[in-house]
Write a structure and sequence with these properties.
The chain is an alpha/beta fold. Helices cover 43% and strands 11% of the residues. A five-stranded parallel sheet has the order 3-2-1-4-5, sandwiched between helices. β4, α5 and β5 form a beta-alpha-beta unit.
């Protein structure tokens, strides 16, 4: 059975991929490295959901730590870029570079990412970051795969309901919150970040 390092952005994007891997004789080692997520409470909330799911399945989870200051430094000057623009590319570059590094440290030959399943992301940007990362670590290969296909998108929705996942409505960084804040009344209360829930002192 092959072992693959799976960079995970969150439980909703990861669950169907993990299930698919297990059914195809692949053992995923889940690497949660997402320094873009803000604030820290949101980071911990998403980490808690993927950890809960993996523990149920007996899957190893590695926390890559919340290096938000490093992430802010990497995207400095790109704060006003639109979604799917240069800031997102820079963000993917950092996260997948760290994934490739962890893959190399663990002696695992291949890595892939749940970012390739997200409706919020441009697949070509994700794949470009993955291939750039693999070049920095000889012996490590980025597994380019469209994780939205093969029925996985439908299964994603099913697993969100089965596991009652917190299903956030934005990628996580402070610069991408705008559309979510504008549409907060259309989002289920349980899927809002804590700071936007009714009755919280810092809700806008």
């Amino acid at each position: 059975m092959e072992t693959v390092l799976l960079h995970s952005c969150c439980a909703p994007c990861s669950a169907a991929i993990i299930e698919w891997m297990l059914k195809n004789d692949i053992t995923p080692v889940v690497y949660y490295y997402n320094p873009n997520i803000f604030p820290r409470d949101e980071y911990e909330k998403r980490k808690g959901e993927i950890t809960r799911y993996c523990e149920k399945l007996g899957i190893r989870v590695i926390d890559g730590d919340w290096e938000h200051d490093l992430w802010r430094e990497r995207v400095r000057g790109l704060e006003l870029e639109p979604e799917r623009g240069a800031r997102c590319q820079c963000c993917f570059d950092l996260r997948l570079e760290k994934a490739a590094q962890k893959c190399s440290e663990l002696g695992i030959k291949r890595f892939t990412t749940t970012l390739a399943s997200s409706r919020w992301k441009t697949l070509s940007q994700v794949d470009a970051a993955g291939h750039a990362a693999e070049k920095k670590y000889p012996g490590v290969t980025y597994w380019e795969k469209n994780w939205r296909k093969g029925g996985l998108q439908d299964r994603r929705g099913e697993l969100i309901k089965i596991n009652n996942f917190y299903n956030q409505q934005w990628c996580g960084c402070e610069f991408s919150m705008g559309h979510m804040v504008q549409n907060r009344d259309k989002i289920e209360e349980k899927n809002l970040p804590d700071f936007l829930k009714k009755g919280t002192s810092d809700a806008q």
